[in-house]
Amino acid sequence: MADPALACNFTHAITRAPGPEVTGGLRAADTGAPDLDAFLDHHAAYIAALRETGSQVVELPALPAFPDGVFVEDTALCLPEGAVVLRPGAPSRLGEAAQMAPVLARFFPEIRTIGNGFVEGGDLLWTGAEILAGRSARTDAAGIGELARLVAPWGHHVREVETPPGVLHFKTDCSLVGPGMVLATERLAASGPFEGYQVILTAEGEEAAANAIRFNELVLMPAGFPRTAARLAEAGCEVREIPNSEAAKLDGGMSCLSLRFTPPREGCPV
Ligand code: CIR
C-alpha cells in the first residue's frame, strides 16, 4: 500500500458531539474550562467544512462518561483495508475505544484490535506510503509493535518515531496537508522524521497551527495563524480556517475531532 493520494481523500468521517462533560477534559496546562456553547459552534463549523467536500459525516452523540470523547481520532486508525481499534494510554480514555468499535463495524468488514501496550491515534500519521508512529506519554513501544504486526498483512509499514518531550501527540506538531506534503513545527521537523517529504514549517510563534487535516480538496486548520495559513496557500493548499479556541484548551486540534476514511466495501450505510 503506497498511494499518497489515499491519505488525503475520504468519502466518510466520524465525529462525536461534545457534551457538558467536555469541561472536565484532560489538559496539560489549565487555561480554563472550555465553553460548551462555543465548542458546539466550532464543532458545527468543522463538520460543515467536512461535508462541503461531499463527504458523509456520521455524527455520534456525546458520551457522558468520557470527557474527552469528542476527540475520536484517538480511538482508531482507519485504513483502506480495515480499521484498527486502538488502546488509549490515558486511563480515563481507555474505554472510549470500545465505544467506537461497533460504529466502525458498520463500515469495515475487517477490524483488528490493539491488545498490548498503548496507542492513541494522535500519534499516528498515515501518509499513504507509511504509518509514522510517535512514541509519547500516551503511545508506547509495545503498542506500536502490536500495531505494526496487525497492519503488516494489509501491506502497511509502521515507522516508529519520537514525539518531542512535553508534546502531547506526534500530530500535535505535524499534519499531512497534501500527497507527500507535511506541515510541521520546526522542533519536530528538526528531529528528522520527514526525509523524502515536502515539509512546510509553521511560522514562528504559530506552532499551534501544526495540527491540521487534509480532507479532500480542503486543508482544515485552526483559525488565528495567518502566517502559516499563507504558507499553506502558497504551497497550493485550499485552506479553511476553523475556530478552535475551546478544543485547544484541552490540547485538541483539527485531526483529533474526526476519523476519516473510505469504507472498503461499496454501499455501506451511514
Ligand atoms: C487528551 O488529553 O487526551 C485530550 N484532552 C486531547 C486529545 C487530542 N487528541 C489528538 O490530538 N488526537
Quick recap of the structure?
20% of the residues lie in helices and 23% in strands. It has helices at 36-52, 96-105, 141-151, 186-189, 226-234, 245-248, and strands spanning 12-16, 56-60, 76-78, 83-85, 111-113, 124-126, 131-135, 158-162, 174-178, 181-184, 198-201, 213-215, 218-222, 238-242, 259-261. Citrulline (CIR) binds at residues 25-27, 68, 71, 73-74, 90, 93, 121-122, 168-169, 171-172, 250-252, 255-256.
Written account of the structure:
- The protein has a single domain (4-261), classed as L-arginine/glycine Amidinotransferase, Chain A (5-stranded Propeller), CATH 3.75.10.
- It is globular and about 40 Å long.
- The protein has 270 residues and is of the alpha/beta class.
- The chain has helices spanning 36-52, 96-105, 141-151, 186-189, 226-234, 245-248; strands at 12-16, 56-60, 76-78, 83-85, 111-113, 124-126, 131-135, 158-162, 174-178, 181-184, 198-201, 213-215, 218-222, 238-242, 259-261.
- The strands form five sheets. Strands 2-1-15 form a three-stranded mixed β-sheet, with helices on one face.
- 20% of the residues lie in helices and 23% in strands.
- The two termini are 26 Å apart.
- The structure holds citrulline (CIR).
- The site of citrulline has 20 residues, from loops.
- Residues 25-27, 68, 71, 73-74, 90, 93, 121-122, 168-169, 171-172, 250-252, 255-256 line the site of citrulline.
